[in-house]
Write a structure and sequence with these properties.
about 550 residues, alpha/beta, Purple Acid Phosphatase, chain A, domain 2, 5'-nucleotidase,  domain 2, 13 helices, 29 strands
């Protein structure tokens, strides 16, 4: 979004009235006549899952402890309609990663179907997550404003009208300081303005290919949220919610709402007391918590499970005189999107058409496997699937001179499951590597390769220790010692049986996500040269197409001391 256009749209949002009215039983309990009840419905990390997600995210544990099938756009739409029908007024928000890393039903149409689905749901606003930037700012703007894809045209419909809702990202700017997204959205409910702020973690660039965001800057999310809350307050908006594409609960397993220290506590307890409710989105964790804000007032923090399996709901009460939320009357819960409800017929038909249109491509057999090949990590952190992908990438790049390959575990989004005959379809392979990453061959010294392996041990945004064990190709071996000091945990490195020479230059194949320094692997950006080597998905499908069914590789390439 251009800078001035962004400012104009941000200011015009002040005058935009978005009243969502429904009939029904309203909120529980009698309310004084000088208050306005409002139901807030949210979901996050949808990732374009219009069909019910597959394993390992096919089920969710309900509050009664039972694991049940969950998710799917038709069921999500049915629950949204039901929840809206139980309130006099409601607003619906998406909290980041609504698309990107999507199943083939959405991805092969450049996620236009997901944009249309969100529009049909009448989403009030969508906060941006890191995956919305996977294909760069220009593609994000196209999805917002409409128009056919510049390279592939309109695959989904004859024309594409774009989003019917605003995208929010208060801490995203272009390199010249102009806003890259709207900072907030204002809706009016019974004459009362309600503001929604969207922010992303400031370390978001670690999770996006560097070339996709080379013209963007991601500022501190707390500063941006506070600045935007002050602006809303100055405009007379007193009821404010924060949509944060990040997981700020740091539960210890027995208590998902425990907060001890680090970024989690900082974000939760430091964001401006003008913010009345925080909705987060990151991964599979679900929680319904309350923490004191900087003024000491309790504030609800909610998150539902990813991939469209849970809707987070907050019934709030607004004082008509002050236009502020009466926080002690907030009632919040997480609603599992179970399959024991009649699916929305319009959405069900829409998704069935998508599945039918993508089925020919998805059903093409690309190879065979002899057993399940999964992301389940061994003690070393490597997995059979990761090792398979690394081997596939080495095989694809060896003709161009590559000597070794490494791949990031976060780039593997599905497993390969053996069924009768062991056939692997294109859709299943795509589910493993849906990002469209390209392979690159980097020229690195042995010392640099060693340093990159040491970067597998990092500190996350909350200050906690973090491991990102790269999957190595079959010819790379080393010893990992987790008790050694950081920076000295990797030793005895061999490549094709020979000790790694710190002075020798090696050709290392990685995807362009890693080559750009993402996931904290900054050493890869120091490569002396780099050569393009095709698509990582093509490398995988070619490797699987060998005459003999592929067996799960052993997870013995990394020795644990």
């Amino acid at each position: 979004m251009g800078g001035y256009a962004a400012l104009r749209r941000a200011l015009s949002a002040i005058a935009t009235v978005a009243v969502v009215a429904a009939t029904g039983i309203g909120q529980a309990g009698a309310l004084p006549p000088d208050t306005v009840p409002l139901r807030l419905i949210t979901f996050g990390d949808l990732h374009g899952n219009l069909l019910p997600p597959q394993e390992p995210r096919s089920e969710v544990v309900r509050s009664d402890g039972q694991s049940v099938p969950a998710g799917g756009a038709a069921y999500l739409a049915a629950y949204v309609e039901q929840l809206r029908g139980q309130a006099d007024d409601s607003l619906l928000y998406a909290v980041g990663d609504s698309w990107g890393s999507s199943p083939i039903e959405s991805a092969m149409f450049h996620d236009e179907p997901t944009i249309e689905f969100l529009g049909d749901l009448d989403v009030t606003a969508a906060a941006l997550g890191n995956h919305e930037f996977d294909n760069g700012l220009e593609e994000l703007q196209r999805l917002r404003d409409g128009g056919c894809h510049p390279e592939h045209g309109c695959r989904f419909t004859e024309s594409f009208e774009g989003a019917k809702f605003p995208f929010l990202g208060a801490n995203v700017t272009t390199t010249d300081g102009a806003p890259a997204a709207l900072p907030f959205d204002i809706s009016y409910v019974d004459g009362i303005p309600v503001g929604a702020i969207g922010v992303l973690p400031h370390n978001t660039p670690e999770y996006i290919r560097s070339d996709a965001i080379e013209d963007l800057h991601f500022g501190d999310e707390i500063e941006a949220a506070n600045r935007t809350a002050d602006a809303l307050d100055a405009l007379g908006v007193r009821s404010i919610i924060l949509l944060y594409k990040g997981d700020i609960a740091a539960g210890n397993g027995t208590d998902p709402c425990s907060l001890d220290s680090g970024r989690a506590k900082e974000v939760t307890t430091t964001v401006s007391p003008l913010v009345d409710l925080v909705i987060t989105s990151d991964g599979d964790g679900q929680f319904n918590c309350s923490y004191p804000d900087p003024a000491g007032r309790q504030r609800t923090v909610l998150q539902g499970a990813s991939h469209g399996r849970i809707l987070s709901v907050a019934d709030i009460t607004i004082d008509r005189a002050t236009r502020d939320v009466v926080r002690d009357r907030t009632v919040a819960f997480n609603q599992v999107i179970t399959h024991d409800i009649t699916p929305d017929p319009h959405t069900e038909k829409f998704v069935a058409q998508l599945a039918d249109r993508s089925s020919h491509t998805a059903a093409q057999v690309v190879g065979r496997i002899a057993a399940d090949i999964t992301r389940i990590p061994a003690a070393s952190g490597e997995s059979a699937l990761g090792n398979l992908v690394a081997d596939a990438q080495l095989a694809a790049t060896e003709p161009l001179g590559a000597q070794v390959a490494l791949t990031n575990p976060g780039g593997l989004r599905g497993d390969l499951h053996f069924d009768e005959g062991g056939a692997v379809t294109y859709g299943e392979a795509y589910g493993v590597q849906p990002f469209g990453n390209l392979l690159q061959i980097l020229e690195l010294t042995g010392a640099q390769l060693h340093a990159a392996l040491e970067q597998q041990f990092q500190t996350d945004i909350s200050g906690a220790d973090l491991e990102r064990i790269l999957a190595p190709s079959h010819n790379l071996n080393y010893t990992l010692d987790r008790l050694a000091p950081v920076g000295h945990r990797i030793r005895d490195i061999t490549l094709s049986g020979a000790p790694l020479d710190p002075e020798t230059t090696y050709s290392v194949a990685v995807n362009d996500y890693l080559a750009g320094g993402s996931d904290g692997f900054t050493v890869f950006t120091e490569a002396r040269s780099r050569v393009g080597a095709g698509e990582e998905l093509a490398a995988l499908t070619t490797f699987l197409s060998r005459p003999t069914p592929t067996r799960p590789p052993a997870t013995d390439r990394i020795r644990v001391h």
